[in-house]
Specification:
By secondary structure, the chain is α+β, with helices and mostly antiparallel strands. Helix content is 36%, strand content 24%. The longest helix is centred in the C-terminal third of the chain and has 17 residues.
């Protein structure tokens, strides 16, 4: 596949995800470098949905370490259970936070972030190996559609990570 996305911006959010998924699979197919694949996936998500910030944090030793992302500079390391990312890792569960200012222990990498969704990525042993973190400058910007399709993208990452 050419390194070009074809997404009609007039489509609904769900239709954009449906169009994006096979393109992401094609983009990562045959590429064995995890960082290259993650970088392209984050760029594709940013390009398609214009998220304020999108990236991955990878489990290394006993913390999450910043991986490929698109957006402003970010926190580099997050402890297990801390903030939305650390909580999603600890709980091994997707978290949707409509208002990050109301999330106990939220780590404010930027005061511009208003809502967030974090999706764990699992290995074959069902251990969390990284999380996908998406932030918006709008309140309540994420919903079940994002959860469903970002989990499909997490499954795609599980296949090559």
């Amino acid at each position: 596949m050419a390194e070009e996305l074809i997404i009609n911006q007039q489509l609904s959010k769900e239709e954009k995800y449906q169009n994006l998924l096979p393109q992401l699979a094609a983009l990562t197919s045959g590429e064995t470098d995890v960082m290259a694949n993650l970088a392209n996936l984050m760029a594709a998500l940013k390009q398609t949905f214009h998220f304020w910030w999108v990236g991955v944090y990878m489990v290394k030793n006993d913390e999450l370490v910043l991986g490929p992302f698109q957006g402003p500079v970010a926190c580099t390391r997050i402890k297990k259970g801390k903030g939305v990312c650390g909580a999603a890792w600890q709980q091994a569960n997707t978290l949707i936070v409509p208002n990050v200012d109301e999330f106990p222990g939220h780590i404010a990498c930027s005061s511009l972030s208003k809502s967030e969704i974090v999706i764990p990525v699992f290995n074959k042993n069902k251990e969390v190996i990284m999380v996908i973190d998406v932030d918006s400058e709008k309140l309540a910007d994420f919903d079940q559609t994002d959860e469903i399709y970002l989990n499909k993208i997490a499954n795609l990452i599980s296949d090559f990570a």
